[in-house]
Amino acid sequence: MIPRAPLLLGLAGTLPFIWGAITTALPDFALASAQMIGPRFVGPYVQLFYGAVILSFMSGVLWGFATKAEANQAATGYALSVLPALWAFFMTGGGPTSAGIYLIAGFAGLLALDFMFSKWGLTPDWWMPLRILLSAIVIISLSTGVVLG
């Protein structure tokens, strides 16, 4: 069972992705929201900026898991842990559609890394159920931005 705090905080962390999908799907709402809070915080723009931040954050999480490993596995874990941040840095500079597609691929790749670290026994037992749930929400939300954006 996923502990309450990580579940609630993880779900809260998906709100910018969901908000971006909603404001992409509802252009009039997006316009009103952009006028109130600024254009960077609506539509695909909030998703892309926040997505790059979250991939970088998750690199740090994986780095933390790598500290539990030893020898070659630790070195491999450290090397793999930087990939999400590098992916976000190098792959999100294009337009909103291509950046959204690359972020979807980045979050799918992150889920594969989560699975690997879990199989190595470096994560808590509840990690994969949480990561599958959050990744599904993020990927669906980003997909909305790509298709409608």
TrEMBL record:
What species is given as this protein's source?
Planktotalea frisia
Ranges annotated as spanning the membrane: 44-63, 75-93, 129-148
The answer, when asked if Transmembrane is one of the entry's keywords, is yes
Q: What domain of life does the native source organism fall in?
A: Bacteria
Keyword Transcription regulation listed? The answer is no
Protein name as annotated: DUF3429 domain-containing protein
Keyword annotations for this protein, in alphabetical order, are: Membrane, Transmembrane, Transmembrane helix
- Region forming the signal peptide: none
Pfam families tied to this protein: DUF3429
Q: Which InterPro entries match?
A: DUF3429 (IPR021836)
